[in-house]
Amino acid sequence: MDTTTRTRRIALIPGDGIGVEVAASARAVLASLDARHGLGIRIDEFDWSCQRYLDTGALMPPDGLETLRAYDAVLLGAVGWADVPDHVSLWGLLIPIRRAFSQYVNLRPVRTFAGVTSPLADGENRPIDLVIVRENNEGEYSQVGGRFGQGGPGETAIQEAVFTRHGISRIADYALELASSRGRRVTSATKSNGLVHSMPFWDEVVRERAELRPEVELVEEHVDALAAKLVLRPESFDVIVASNLFGDILSDLAAAVTGSIGIAPSANLDPTGENPSMFEPVHGSAPDIAGKGLANPVGMLWSVVLMLEHLSAGEAAAQLMDAIEVSLRDPATRTADVGGTASTEQVTAAVLDLL
Amino acid sequence: MDTTTRTRRIALIPGDGIGVEVAASARAVLASLDARHGLGIRIDEFDWSCQRYLDTGALMPPDGLETLRAYDAVLLGAVGWADVPDHVSLWGLLIPIRRAFSQYVNLRPVRTFAGVTSPLADGENRPIDLVIVRENNEGEYSQVGGRFGQGGPGETAIQEAVFTRHGISRIADYALELASSRGRRVTSATKSNGLVHSMPFWDEVVRERAELRPEVELVEEHVDALAAKLVLRPESFDVIVASNLFGDILSDLAAAVTGSIGIAPSANLDPTGENPSMFEPVHGSAPDIAGKGLANPVGMLWSVVLMLEHLSAGEAAAQLMDAIEVSLRDPATRTADVGGTASTEQVTAAVLDLL
Ligand SMILES: CC(C)[C@H](C(=O)O)[C@@H](O)C(=O)O
Ligand SMILES: CC(C)[C@H](C(=O)O)[C@@H](O)C(=O)O
């Protein structure tokens, strides 16, 4: 039992589109786990979203980050909607949260499940179980840069990637520590041959940190070759450590290789515990299926598993993960994107039954 | 017949490792096509390579680029070897050639072949036929940037991506024109949500150019989602236009999805014809199999096809492409990386027989 007198305060931001639908699923599941395990869960919901931006001019209130600071974790559905450019919606909510709270680890586990068909031939016989450890605070995603000579023939845009020793060290350390409790191998994504300032530095610092963990093998792969290998030999990977942009690309790719983006979870972690961490499915707001009850709640529910683990509620987390696994086995209790027939609500009901 | 009194002067740079082996294959095939079609082919070979760097301190002589300027095309095997850091070997030869000769298009056709098994389930029934049009002169691969506070705790590396209206316009135009003679759809790889200076500019210019070609449909995809779709629905793509880095990643990935990096070709084109263009297989020097006769020459030979097309020798090009296709059908005339039993020389002999 995870019963404690402790309270676990969760800020739930459903966001836009199917974010709202999968957030409802998470609420129901958390209520059930709370009743069973006495987790002391208290959920406050925030309507921060593109709709709010269209109504008020801001995705969240000016003191939004301060508000979140009081919580033990943030659970986010998805943010993004037509009429609001992506860079507005993301840099107005998601990315500021990741950065203000030093959530420098974006953890993206990827694995195969019985019942979810991989697009690869012989997928059933190739169990994939890897974790992408994505740097989440610096690197290529930077607001440094700008436009020169607007409208003229020489118009130029500069985008600066910024990598710090501090930032690379801590993400490398996290990946190495994780690997030492798993398969003891870290693959580091690089592109030192093309990106001659940032990536040789990345390699240098990752190597230095790896020397402190001789029990873990470090393998370096150029990101182009690594992308190819994720298709050709995905089962050969254990922990992959990557910069913000490379981690973004590789994690979507790896999720696709296992059969569905709809089941992929992510944790934005501040491993120091000083700030709240944030948990969100990898999928977006999916305007094309929003409001139809078709959304796969598993990406969100698996994110809840990661959140419960982070909040030291390991028993509840394990129980939920088991329920997810069982529900995925049966077409009647999984959604159409993974070859099933169930609605979001039906999957949720099945998971609740299984708890 | 492509018979003309014209001479076609080719600079052959075998380079390192299996580059040397596949270059020998190309020489033999070109000699045979020349004899048959009277193409006026004159090949001069250059030993520019990592070995030359280790011996003399430079991959090519100081007047190397001037020397190449006199040729109609450059054919390159592969450059790169242990003991020479990649960024030295590439920025000392490959990348200067791409830039000095305004080879701003890196063309990477990707398709399935009978006999080459795709790693995807049901691959035989999913014919893939797409072309990646990669920007080859600017963008993320830039020497702008550097290191600050070396060795100190605040050490920082900056890597600047530089995108110009001129550069984006011309690559978009090339992709749009190519698409209008194919499936009339261009997918543009973006990441405007994360990279807020470079990619919104890329999108803006690509859209402007696409408006001038109303017969071609423009689809924009974030590079993470695009990578996933290349695994889930590769058959849905026609022409993909991408920046230097994104094109690099997506083209390796797409080649993997069809079954082998060993068959993937590339053309570095100056479409104005003012400068020589360069043709090279996508694979590298492959130290692990070098010298063993295991290299798949098809990536190189398909690159020769692209070169012959570029040099207005369409009939010879088509004949070679047919021979490649037929050779790939039989395990006895294809290499181990594509499930065959043949050596580099045996594949070459088979292609020569088929010509
Ligand atoms: C070797 C490297 C610099 C090169 C590139 O990224 O351009 C290679 O990967 C390629 O695709 O031609
Ligand atoms: C929406 C976008 C900015 C975001 C990212 O690239 O970080 C998303 O793709 C993700 O992976 O969380």
From TrEMBL, chains A, B:
A GO molecular-function annotation: tartrate dehydrogenase activity
The protein, known as: D-malate dehydrogenase (decarboxylating)
Family indicated by similarity: Belongs to the isocitrate and isopropylmalate dehydrogenases family.
Enzymatic class: oxidoreductase
Catalysis performed (reactions): (R)-malate + NAD(+) = pyruvate + CO2 + NADH
Keyword Thylakoid attached: no
Keywords: Manganese, Metal-binding, NAD, Oxidoreductase
UniProt domain Isopropylmalate dehydrogenase-like: residue ranges: 9-351
Lineage: Bacteria, Bacillati, Actinomycetota, Actinomycetes, Propionibacteriales
The protein's required cofactors: Mn(2+); Mg(2+)
Gene3D superfamilies: Isopropylmalate Dehydrogenase
Alphabetical list of PANTHER family matching this protein: D-MALATE DEHYDROGENASE [DECARBOXYLATING] (PTHR43275:SF1)
InterPro entries: ICDH/IPMDH (IPR050501), IsoCit/isopropylmalate_DH_CS (IPR019818), IsoPropMal-DH-like_dom (IPR024084), TTC_DH (IPR011829)
E.C. no: 1.1.1.83
